Amino acid sequence: MNGDLAIRARGLSKKFGQLRAVDNLDLDVPRASIYGFLGPNGSGKSTTIRMLCGLLTPSAGTANVLGVEIPGPSSRLKPKIGYMTQKFSLYTDMTVAENLQFIAEIYSYPRAARSARIQELLEKYHLVQQRRQFAGTMSGGQKQRLALACAVLHKPDLLLLDEPTSAVDPQSRRDFWSNLFRLAEAGTTIMVSTHYMDEAERCHRLAILDHGVKVADGTPQQLQADTGMQIIEVLADDPYQAQEVLSGLATVASVTQLGTRLRVLVPQDISDALNSVTEALSSRKIAAESTLVAASLEDVFVAATLDRTDLAA
Amino acid sequence: MKSLSRLLAIMRKEVRQLRRDSLTFAMIFGIPIMQILLFGYAINTDVRHLRTAVADQADTHLSRRFVAELRQTQVVDIRHRVSTPGNIEDLLRAGKISIGVVIPDDFDRRVVDANRAAVQLLVDGSDPTILSVANQLRNMPIRLDTELIGTRLSQIEIRPYYNPERRTPVNIVPGLIGVILTMTMMMFTAVAIVRERERGNLELLINTPVSSTELMVGKVLPYIVIGIVQTALIVGLGWLLFMVPIRGSILDLYFAAIFFIAANLALGLFFSTVAKTQFQAMQMTFFLMLPSILLSGFMFPFDGMPRFAQYIGEVLPITHFIRLTRGIMLRDAVPGDMQGELVFLAVFTVIAMAAAALRFSKRLD
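The joint structure predicted for all components is written out below.
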């Protein structure tokens, strides 16, 4: 066993033909925590999750998930994990109650406790009114609650959630996350992949993936403190032109536009970064207001993926 | 002009997608080439080499001479030599022969007797084609060396068994059970796995403790019941509307049907693990449908087909099932008479199920 770790992976890699979908990944996921996987589409999040639940065989490396070695027979792992796929994967032509019943039977949930458990889940996930509704006719948020209810029905030690909120509205996302917190408090380890920064911020720990490589990991606070960048927010009348100017500066690592604001990333070791930005803009007669701000997770992400681009270049 | 360019865009897209679906692409060429070669050669209503047994009770020079002449016609293929007409009836019932030749011990005297038939042909009349071929044999003169002995035309008496009124439905309905079951059963399971894959259910399912075997067997069993209901429906309608008899035991018929249904479901399930889309799965069942109808003995007598077509027919479950249903329904046979057919279906089912379970992996790579 791993002691306090639910998942421990070393050098986990997966190649699809020439593509390195996941490259030499090390992971330590503490028990009873929410561990986030942040990365753009195609960064290897789903592939990693699929390797960890035994759906894909790693090309190299090993992992220990809840004491089960990967690669290896994963049948001992299946009863201990709950998995929520990116695409809704329950039966659309069955009702909510029928889907839950089916999952309970598949996991051999004790017969006597079955209907009580289903009732409990229907209440907890606000599906009592929908119990006789076909799953296919429900809204995105309702489907997602049903999928979560099915994934946790057998009380798994580990929940693997693959972009669970990509098809739901903000309110449903908030509700969903409060459900996840309750589960984690009750002792469930949760691994969740996302490309939403606000969701990543809620995780206890976080790994940022880019092109299959883990470029950063830690608590969101740690990551924000350790970007190695000074973040300058520029409020400009003509943000497009300001961006042109700032991108041309050798000291600037990256400029991202957010509406009328620009997030300018300057490496930590550059002194007087704020002044050089202000001067560069005023010399070109661009009206702008620049301030030094704390790093957001988005900045962390940009900074982390920048390093990769530099390495590749 | 705009309409034309949009039309061309649709056409180009269609061709592009078609070319990437290798199975469909193969079907465009495969179906016509394979099927025309197969059926062009195989379908032959000029039936020869009917399996035949001879009971030569006379065993005289003349009778041996007659048997030799009979053989020279190539219409019959003498597989068995037996001593009594009873033996011939047993062979007929078991479906081992289509024609039995009974030469009575006073054959030599009968040949010159205008009032009595010299030879009896016991024919499996359940297939009208075979019966008409036997009728042609009747015109064969009996001669000794070059000297014609009999002057009458019909020294050979035909005794059609099982379908004396020569009604087509009697022959068709038992086979139709097989054709309908092949079509429906195979389709049910052919889409079974691939549908779950297309809808995304499979990724969830393979992450649960359910095993490949549980999944496969669980998908097959409910359809066996449906298959039995279908069998009952066809048999009932055949009996009600076409007066197709059930001479054997109805329980035996269901017993045989279960073997056949299982074989088809297993094959369909195997297709389902091979196909990438439901459409491909349907194409595969379709591909198997034509040989099932044409090479199984359903439409044309099995004995009349060339050897290579018979080999293909022997591999199809329906060929064996049709022998069973015709035996049970028309000839009052019991499954014990046709154990070989049942064994084939059982082995076929086990192999197809094992292949499906092996091909189906609880992994995505």
